[in-house]
Design a protein that fits this description.
heterodimer; A: mainly beta; 10 strands; B: alpha+beta; six-stranded mixed beta sheet; two-stranded antiparallel ribbon; disordered N terminus
């Protein structure tokens, strides 16, 4: 489908979603906690963003977009033996009520082709597209606040 | 390295590792680590020759007297590389004054994208004493082979990421490989094992 046709196909749904939320209709909700991105040094063209997502019904994270990078993808770290791989995934399941951690050992948002250096304290805007079990889509706008490049993985754990 | 294999074996067999410590360096050919892997019998990474960001050629013997801890990675690595370097900073602090002898060495697996400037800024942000080393693509492949480090470019979109071995390799102050620290260990666990290496030499 070309982009224009895609836009056209999406438009009725977007209008419906806005109408539903305006009328206070109980739509699926996903909460995002502790969203942060790792700051970079000048000239470093990529970094990761992390967060905890909790959906109130079985949902799926479909995509993450950001104006901070040319290409934003969802990656998953996996360890085989002592080899760490970080590979793209198509989507992430968000089981109802279960917090899904985006951290160094699992999923993370990969920001590739950064438009500028990410400095500590910068807000990195992320747009999350999530689909619930009924097929309804919600769009969440999140600001991931940049922590120092040398920040440990978990600010609260350990 | 195996100058006195018989004597070493006898000492280890009798379980009087303590004598080795009293006698000075290197009288024990194996070490007992609580968390990491004893690599005393492995011969890895003895002959690497790479450049630091200032263009100085470095070999393992450049760090004699220090306890080198070598880690392979790339600066565009979002997770395992920064967390491993951050862990090294914490472990160094936990070791107290002994931490001054820990020399963290970050070898890039991505010399195409990791320029000397980016590499230098990157490691120094973690700790000004950390050293980054970089070779040509061929030298990088050779060094990885010498360490038995696996790495592989994986295309993503119009760029790539790198899957790689996440172990940190620790040498004693005479340049004998001693310890492998896996990514899953905490800074506290690393610090305890690093202090065990220091007891030997």
């Amino acid at each position: 489908m070309n982009p224009a046709a895609k836009m056209k196909a999406l438009r009725p749904f977007t209008v419906l979603a806005v109408a539903l939320s305006l009328s206070g209709y109980a739509m699926a909700q996903t909460t995002v906690e502790d969203a942060w991105a790792r700051a970079t040094v000048p000239g470093q063209p990529a970094t990761g963003a992390f967060m905890t997502l909790t959906a109130d019904s079985d949902s799926t994270l479909l995509s993450v977009q950001s104006p901070a990078a040319k290409d934003t993808q969802i990656h998953q770290s996996t360890m085989k033996g002592d080899v760490m791989s970080m590979l793209p995934v198509d989507e992430v399941s968000l089981p109802a009520g279960e917090p899904v951690m985006f951290d160094a050992n699992g999923y993370h948002v990969m920001l590739m082709g950064l438009v500028k250096q990410v400095k500590e304290g910068d807000a990195v805007p992320l747009t999350l597209k999530i689909k619930n079990a009924q097929g309804e889509e919600e769009t969440l706008e999140v600001n991931a606040v940049a922590r120092a490049l040398n920040a440990p993985d978990h600010a609260h754990a350990h | 390295m195996n100058d006195f294999p018989t004597r070493r074996r006898v000492l280890a067999g009798m379980g009087i590792l303590g004598l080795g410590v009293l006698a000075g360096c290197g009288d024990s050919n194996t070490l007992s680590f609580k968390y990491g892997k004893d690599l005393s019998n492995e011969i890895l990474g003895r002959t690497f020759r790479l450049k630091d960001p200032q263009g100085n050629e470095k070999t393992l013997s450049s760090f004699r007297g220090m306890m080198p801890m070598v880690f392979f990675g790339f600066t565009q690595c979002p997770a395992v590389c920064p967390t491993t370097l951050a862990r090294a900073v914490q472990a160094k602090k936990l070791m107290g004054r002994d931490g001054d002898r820990l020399q963290v060495i970050f070898i890039t697996l991505d010399p195409e994208r990791d320029t000397p400037e980016v590499l230098d800024a990157y490691v120094k942000l973690f700790d000004p004493t950390f050293v980054a080393l970089r070779g040509t693509l061929e030298q990088t492949a050779e060094v990885a082979k010498e360490f038995k480090v696996f790495y592989e470019k994986v295309p993503v979109g119009d760029t790539y990421t790198i899957s790689h071995t996440s172990t940190s390799y620790v040498y004693d102050s005479r340049g004998v490989l001693r310890l492998g620290l896996s990514h899953s260990l905490t800074a506290q666990e690393c610090a305890e094992d690093l202090l065990t290496v220091m007891e030997v030499c």
